[in-house]
Amino acid sequence: MTDIELSAVTVEFPGRTALRDVSVHLHQRRIAVIGSNGSGKSTFARTLNGLVTPTTGEVRVHGIDPVRQSRQLRRRVGFVFSNPDIQIIMPTVAEDAAFSLRGRGLSRAEVRERVAAALDRVGLSEYADSPAHSLSGGQKQLLALCAVLIGEPSLVVADEPTAYLDAANGRRIARFLLDEMPQQLVLATHDLRLAARCDIAVRFEDGQVVDQGDPAPVIARYEHDQDQT
Ligand SMILES: Nc1ncnc2c1ncn2[C@@H]1O[C@H](COP(=O)(O)OP(=O)(O)OP(=O)(O)O)[C@@H](O)[C@H]1O
What we know:
Layout: E1 4-13, E2 16-26, E3 30-35, H1 41-47, E4 56-61, H2 70-76, E5 77-80, H3 93-98, H4 108-121, H5 137-149, E6 155-159, H6 167-180, E7 184-188, H7 192-196, E8 200-205, E9 208-213, H8 215-228
Parallel strand pairs: 3-7, 3-8, 5-6, 6-7
Antiparallel strand pairs: 1-2, 1-4, 8-9
Bound molecules: adenosine-5'-triphosphate.
């Protein structure tokens, strides 16, 4: 598993401190990140792939600095957002799936083979030549995942990946991420049923890690605190 280490990480945005002096060391296969609105979950997730640069402190993902060594990092870490529409960049399903293989020196035949295998894995083979934007919301999220997985990352960071999906598609994406995908997962979510299926839950409040450990008790304490407010 990839080691994820934050040492005394503070992230300041104009007028707002999103993370305050966060130090965590995570290595579990499925890591849930929970906490109230604005607690810092997305900011934490974004430090892992260099989308957010710490104001102070250090982030290391498998020993790689996500900001200074972004090329190495992009090969190891894939990122999935809530909104599948903003993740689709190419006209057809197969072209979109192939996008992250650009610049890797693979032959056309190798790319075709990898795309076919990846689409098959997420059940989108029959849509290979369809316009990507004609897919349903759930299918688009599966395509976004497929485009990430085809680059063979060792870690997938997903920020509310089921937020825009109906119950059936949400379950499908959750099943894929939590049960079928072999990759390590960091899952920022408000869906506590998904968090409960992870190996560890890390709770943020007000930019700090306030609790972490076995998901069931961490979630129970979170729900208790929410009931008090
Ligand atoms: N680019 C930014 N510029 C300014 N402030 C930001 C930026 N990104 C996040 N913030 C602020 O930092 C704080 C933490 O935001 P973050 O998105 O990490 O929280 P979150 O736990 O993911 O919230 P939610 O559950 O609502 O998605 C919030 O107060 C947010 O308004």
